[in-house]
From TrEMBL:
Top-level division of the source organism's lineage: Bacteria
Official protein name in the record: Abasic site processing protein
Stated family: Belongs to the SOS response-associated peptidase family.
GO-annotated biological processes: protein-DNA covalent cross-linking repair; proteolysis
SUPFAM superfamilies: BB1717-like (SSF143081)
GO molecular function: lyase activity; peptidase activity; single-stranded DNA binding
Xref: InterPro entries: SRAP (IPR003738), SRAP-like (IPR036590)
PANTHER family noted in UniProt: ABASIC SITE PROCESSING PROTEIN HMCES, DC12-RELATED
EC number: 3.4.-.-
Source organism (scientific name): Clavibacter nebraskensis
Assigned keywords, A-Z: Covalent protein-DNA linkage, DNA damage, DNA-binding, Hydrolase, Lyase, Protease
Top-level taxonomy: Bacteria, Bacillati, Actinomycetota, Actinomycetes, Micrococcales
Gene3D superfamilies given in the database record: SOS response associated peptidase-like (3.90.1680.10)
Length: 243
């Protein structure tokens, strides 16, 4: 089951917190219930276009953009082809050629306050928990893609759809009691390397980033929350309030 995300931090605060150079338009407002197919804030480092004759080393630009949560591969027929590809098992990327290029050059991070997991008991009852950073922000490893809508004119700014998927790995530590898998949470030590557009992503980098998540997730709080997250309650901080 795909997780639900929560982000309490505003776009303006993320700009300062994450050293963003450029923030795109229409970054989604904070939400305590972000589901696949909705918009998420996504952090990417890109290289500016080189002017003709320019031989200077390029300095990456850190961007905060709005993306569809659910990867739309460039060669697909579009975002409505099937269920949103919101999560990708990190250990399977190397065997999926259609995703390998995104690992090589389109790595991203999704800033969140936390994510929800459900613990199911033997009698079938499901209890929701928030795995999060309290009042802080954590970054989830992600891949992004640009898909061009062939039905739109070349000069239509809406012709390009930015989308992303969060990477997951087998759960460890305290989270293992809640779910079999968990998002790959990035530590501050690996964020720069993961986002670096001058470095080619590789299976080795992916394995290293997935491995360090074991320690990072142990620093997060795990709090049982009320059933409102599953019952259509209003999208407020009450959804994440510990019970």
């Amino acid at each position: 089951m795909t997780r639900i995300l929560a982000r309490a931090t505003t776009a303006d605060d993320l700009v300062g917190l994450l050293d963003v150079d450029h923030a795109g338009d229409a970054i989604a407002a904070p939400s305590w219930r972000i589901v696949p197919g909705q918009r998420v804030a996504v952090l990417v480092d890109t290289l500016p276009r080189r002017a003709e004759g320019d031989t200077e080393d390029q300095v990456p630009v850190r961007r905060l953009e709005s993306a569809r949560w659910g990867l739309v591969p460039a060669g697909s027929s579009g975002p409505d082809q099937g269920p949103p590809l919101a999560e990708l098992p990190a250990e399977q990327l190397a065997s999926r050629p259609e995703l390998l290029q995104a690992l090589v050059s389109r790595r991203a991070a999704v800033p969140v306050s936390g994510y929800y997991e459900h613990h199911e008991t033997d009698d079938g009852l499901r209890t929701p928990y928030l795995v999060g950073a309290g009042e802080g922000t954590v970054l989830l490893a992600a891949l992004y893609e640009w898909w061009r809508d062939p039905s739109r004119a070349a000069d239509d700014p809406a012709r390009w759809v930015l989308s992303c998927a969060v990477l997951t790995r087998p759960s460890t530590g305290t989270v293992e009691a809640l779910a079999e898998r968990m998002p790959v949470v990035l530590s501050p030590d690996v964020v720069e390397e993961w986002l670096d557009p001058t470095a080619e992503g590789s299976p080795d980098l992916l394995r290293a980033v997935a491995a360090q998540a074991e320690d990072v997730v142990e620093e997060l709080a795990i709090d049982e929350v009320g059933p409102g997250i599953d019952q259509g309650a209003p999208d407020t901080a009450e959804l994440a309030r510990p019970v």
